[in-house]
Amino acid sequence: MIPALPPTIHAMRPTIPALLVVFAFQGMLAFADIADIKSEPDLNRRSELALMNADEKIDAARQAYQAGNETAEQAAVEEVAESVTVCYQALEKTRSEPRKSKYYKRAELKVSALMRRLSGFRDEVSFDFRPRVEAVLKRLSDIHDELLSDIMSGKK
After folding, report:
1. Distance between CA 92 and CA 118 in Å, rounded?
2. I want to staple 76 with a disulfide (CB 3.0 to 4.6 A). Which of 47, 61, 102, 144 is the partner?
3. Domain extents for the chain?
């Protein structure tokens, strides 16, 4: 016969919402801005963190646009381009073979997804703000093309 756990053990179990709050708070503190991401010593992790930051900044740009805050909107959109640039530079510094690197392939897929999201955002904004979004979209497209070229050419 298996003994039952004492009732105090059950009372000590944290609830799922409490754990989610703790993990979300830790995630926000881990890398709050692009400067923290640039200081990440692991280049592969830096590339992935930069892509996550770019994804979050598209959400931030959309929220700022809906709130009518043009300066925050522009800053968020510009940080998308900077984050993707940081990602690509980190991957180049790894000196790993792009064709065999899962991080290059993940970056290519994620940048493609970011381009789709940014295109959708471009269609939502006013005509006055579209050139700024299109400039960032062009930069993402250039980096996406470079990633594909690196993967397909097999350069070292």
Report:
1. 24
2. 61
3. 32-153
